[in-house]
Design a protein that fits this description.
285 residues, seven-stranded mixed sheet, alpha/beta
Amino acid sequence: MSRRPHPIDRRIARRRFLAGCVGLSAAALLPAGRILAAAPAEGLRIQRLAWAGIRLQLPGATLFIDPLINPEAWGPALKDKLIPVGDAVGDTYVLITHAHPDHFDAMAVAQALSQGGALVHPAGTNPLPLPENARARPSAPWEPQLLGDFTATPVPASDGYGDPQVSWVVSAGGRRIFHAGDTLWHGHWWRIGRQFGPFDAVFLPINGARFGWRKPISGLPGVLTPEQAVAAATILGARRLVPIHYGVSGLAEYVEVDDPIGRLRKAARDTPIDIHPMAPGAWLD
C-alpha cells in the first residue's frame, strides 16, 4: 500500500530538484561567468575574410562576423581579396559589430544567409535589408546568445563616431575567441577579460585610423592603434592576436598608421602573445 508523502519529504524533494536545476545552470558557466558553448562541438576552424571579417566553421554549423564582399565598400583603397561567403555549411549565423557599411555588408549577409539563418546584431541598430529567408536577432550587451553549437555574447565597444557598436565573445568547439569590430580604446577591457578570458585568439583592429569626415577634426585615432591592440590583448589574456581592419590607403579623409604590422610586432616583443597575421582566405585550425 503506497504512502502519501509527508510535507517535509515533499520540501526535501523540492530542494533537491531546485539544487539540480542550479547545478545544470552552473554547468553552463565557468567561474566569474565565463560562458561555454551551447553544445559539444569538435573541429573549430577560423577563416579570415576581407577587412574585419572572419568565418567560424564547425562540421555542422557556420558563423560569420562582419563579412565583407562588396567591392564598393572601400573601392580601390582596400587591397584585400574579397572572399565569397555563399558556401556556408549547416546552421548559419551572421554577427555584426555595428551597422557601418564596411561591417554590415548587406550583399555579404544576403549571400551567407541565402538558405536561411539568423542575422545577430547589437540592440539599438536596425540593419536592413534582411534576406528573405533569414531572421533578425537583436542582442543586448552581456546577454549570451545560444546559436546552435555556438555561444555568442555581445560586450561593450566604443565606436569612433559614437554609433552603437559591440564586440563579440564566441565559444565553440572548446575554444573561445574575441572579435573587436573596429573599436577604439575603452575601459571595459578589464571586465571582459575577467569574465571571459583567457582567449585562444583575439581578432583586433590595428590601423589607428584618423578620420577627416567629421568636423571639426580631432586628429586622434578612432580605431585601436597597434600598441593599444597589444595592451587590449594582454588584458584579455589572449594567447594569439590576429590583426584585422587594416590595409586601406590612398584616402585623404581616412589615414592609417604607417607599418601597422611592424608596429604590432614591436609592441608585442616582450609579451607572450603570438602575433599571427593572416591573409584573407587563410584558415586557422
